Amino acid sequence: MISIDFEMTQELRDIYVETLCSVKFQDGKTIKDKFDELAIFDGYSFEDVIFMKPEAMHSFIEDTKAKKLNKEELKAIFKYDGKFQPLIASFIEKYLNPRVCYYCNIDYVNVYVEENGGLKNKFTLDHFIDKGNYPYLALSFFNLIPCCSVCNTKIKGQQNFYEDEKLRYTNPYSKDFDFNQKVKFKLFLSDKCQDLHIKSKDDIEIPLKEKYSDKYQKYIDVFKLNDRYSAHKDIVYEMMKNAELYPESRLKELQELTGIPYQEIKKDIFKLIDDNADLSKEPFSKLIKDISQELGLT
Questions:
Q1: Euclidean distance between CA atoms 41 and 35, whole angstroms
Q2: Phi, psi of 74 (to 5 degrees)
Q3: Helix, strand, or coil (residue 210)
Q4: For strand 204-205 and strand 188-189, is the pairing parallel, antiparallel, or unpaired?
Q5: Cα–Cα distances in Å, from 50 out to 64, 211, 262?
Q6: 41 phi and psi, to 5 degrees?
Q7: Which residues neighbour 270 within 8 Å (Cβ) at sequence distance 6 or greater?
Q8: Contact 239, 266 (CB under 8 A)
Q9: Per-residue pLDDT of the chain (298 residues; tens, 9 = 90+)
């Protein structure tokens, strides 16, 4: 739902490679040593694979399908779970610092403090292209999506996104991932509502609607976004009640009483989000932004 804007500088590339190579196999070799020994990815270096962009993964996978790959051998080399996972999670925590699930924008996923005083990551890392079928992408940075455990383990699970053309190009790291621009929450009211006057959140429907295409409908269905957001209609209900309580005239009265510009008062009351704001920093930010536009608040 929310694109990931992250610049992988040369310095960070070096740190990531160093992080991966800090793990030694029983024979003392590193993941890069093992990769070089494979000699099956003609034309692709270790760094090419580890930092491969989402839009390049399709041709890479198709290239490898013609080769006789030993999946079990590759799984042993690119073993994400246990061996590399803690190191990669720490790298992403430090340099990307994810705060909200990029798939659903519902839950915070950043670090929290445990009762014993320690720190624990709430975010999980989903292999957008699953590591079971494509183990050689298990450690590829742009194949690892910080997300909540609901999206990762309870909903997406082991679904093979690569084999489904409607899902293949929905990686939030992709330069073509334009979900926020193409898909908007729309506000629908029951027939008994008049002039936006509602008595209950049950009078509200807030489905995601895509304009002029169905590029993301499968994505919406897989992550059950409409069903999950339906459980949070109280957010929109509160916005609409505030719109009744604080029309423009009332906001200007408050401006005269407090000396605070009414646009600031409005922003505080409705928790409005700026057009250029990073939606990955707060949960429900896309919902609030889209519905604010629907209500004419921005």
A1: 9
A2: -65, -40
A3: strand
A4: antiparallel
A5: 15, 35, 50
A6: -105, 70
A7: 239, 242, 243, 288, 292, 297
A8: no
A9: 999 999 999 999 999 999 999 999 999 999 999 999 887 888 899 999 999 999 999 999 988 887 778 888 898 899 998 889 999 999 999 999 899 999 999 988 876 666 676 656 578 899 999 999 999 999 999 999 999 989 998 898 788 899 998 999 999 999 999 999 999 999 887 766 665 567 778 888 999 999 888 999 999 999 999 999 999 999 999 988 888 888 888 888 888 888 888 888 888 888 888 888 899 999 999 999 999 998 888 7
Burial 109-127 (b: 16+ CB within 10 A, else e): beeeeeeeeeeebbbbbbb
Convert 114-163 into a string of H (helix), E (strand) and C (coil): CCCCCEECCCEEEECCCCCCCHHHCCCHHHEEEECHHHHHHHHCCCCCCC
Contact between 100 and 281 under an 8 Å Cβ cutoff? The reply is yes
- Token pair 């929450």 is at which residue? 185
The set of residues, in sequence order, having a beta carbon less than 8 Å from that of 36 and lying 6+ positions away, is 46
Q: Which residue has the tokens 């895509």?
A: 210
Residue 29: how many other CB atoms lie within 10 Å: 15
